[in-house]
Specification:
With 136 residues, the protein is mostly helical. It has four helices and two strands, in the order αααββα. It is rod-shaped, with a radius of gyration of 43 Å.
């Protein structure tokens, strides 16, 4: 019996001259697929960072809103309004004597600091004093 051998079919043209062409095409397809995955992943990461920063801003604004709501509710109470007027605006009730304490940051003892009464002026005196300081 004679052995029959079949020869591999010969490929003519470009493929015959470039035996590594198939490997190069596979590597190219892999690189193409990888680049197609990079863009959506990058966009996902950027959107995640944006969402996180917006959540932080939202939480800060909610905290600020809660503080303002508490302040609004507190201002419905007359004793709180009086306390704010005394502390922030320096207002006093009629008949009370206001005092101003100066130089609290000095090294003197608290007993050595004397409170000096503030001269109480009428509204017309204050207006005249203000106009006098504006007009040279």
């Amino acid at each position: 019996m004679a052995q029959r051998t079949t020869a591999a079919p010969r490929v003519n043209g470009f493929l015959a001259r470039r035996p590594g062409w198939w490997r190069l095409m596979i590597v190219g397809v892999i690189i193409l697929i990888a680049t197609l995955y990079v863009t959506p992943v990058r966009a996902f990461v950027e959107k995640s960072r944006l969402i996180q920063s917006e959540k932080t801003k939202t939480e800060s604004l909610r905290s600020q809103r809660d503080k303002l709501q508490f302040e609004k509710d507190s201002l419905q109470n007359n004793s709180y309004v009086e306390q704010v007027a005394r502390r922030d605006l320096g207002m006093v009730k009629p008949g009370e004597q206001p005092y101003v304490v100066k130089d609290l940051n000095t090294e003197e003892s608290p007993a050595a600091i004397e409170a000096q009464p503030v001269e109480e002026l009428s509204v017309t005196d204050r207006i005249m004093e203000t106009l006098g300081s504006l007009i040279p």
